[in-house]
Amino acid sequence: MKTKIAFSLLLILLVSLSACNLPSLPVNPPPASTNTLDPQQIDQAIAATLAAQTQVAVYVQQTMTAVALQNPAFTATPSVTPLPTQTATPNFPMVTVSSETNCRSGPGQAYDRLGVLNPGETTEVVGRTTVANYWLVRNPDNPAQVCWLWGEYATVTGDWQSLPQATQPPTPTPAAGFTVAYLGLVVCGPDSALRLEIKNVGSTTWRSIKVNMTDSTTSISKTHASDDFVDMAGCAISNSLIDLEPNETGVVVAADPGHFPYNLTGHNVTVTVTLYSQDGLTGDTSTKTISVTP
What we know:
There is one protein chain. The protein has two helices and 17 strands. With about 290 residues, the chain is an alpha+beta fold. Strands 1, 2, 3, 4, 5, 6, 7 and 8 form an eight-stranded mixed β-sheet that branches. It starts with a helix and ends with a strand.
């Protein structure tokens, strides 16, 4: 340490003397110093200084690294946020229609209607079909479902050729049922009876019928029951069916029994028709109620 101080003082003295502009005077040489610095000591001092500087630099670097680890926000390198990865949108085939088109649980009117695709709307095509002129698509009214769209008014865009092929579901079995419609009055003398059209729209064959009628104007009720489906013209039978098979239509005049002993014109009548799958008003049944004013 003393050697470093002495060396520093010697340098300062030499610089000071060289800076002074003094007259030339004889200078007596300084007395020989008993504490002479040899070159080896000077080299060692320089090496020690460089080593100390290196240690300081290493310490500073280690300190900055430790701070960066403890505080992620502190970093000498600017952070770069990667750009989000862009995924190409698949080119799903889509369908539009030029006219309102039903979308059903299968290809045909025998299947339940699940939704409707209107002009100006689009929906995704999810499958080819084995049935001509039908597409398997997402239900426009419920995208979680698929349904069969009639292709008469449809235009499909996109790659539909690579879609999987859908197989037609089994045709649903029609439930038991029928429709009833009022056709008019049949008059025979002072008596009158209701003439009704019965159409079997289900899968069950009907073999007997009961018609309950209540005239709300007079509070009179009548019942017609028969194993046949009988039509009349005036007082005579014009046609008779022993049963009503699926898709068959019959006409029934609720008379003998069932006629009213007066003219029903202008009266309000509630009519309840029950069909039976067996003769004698037995077996499976189906019932419809209508109101008529003859």
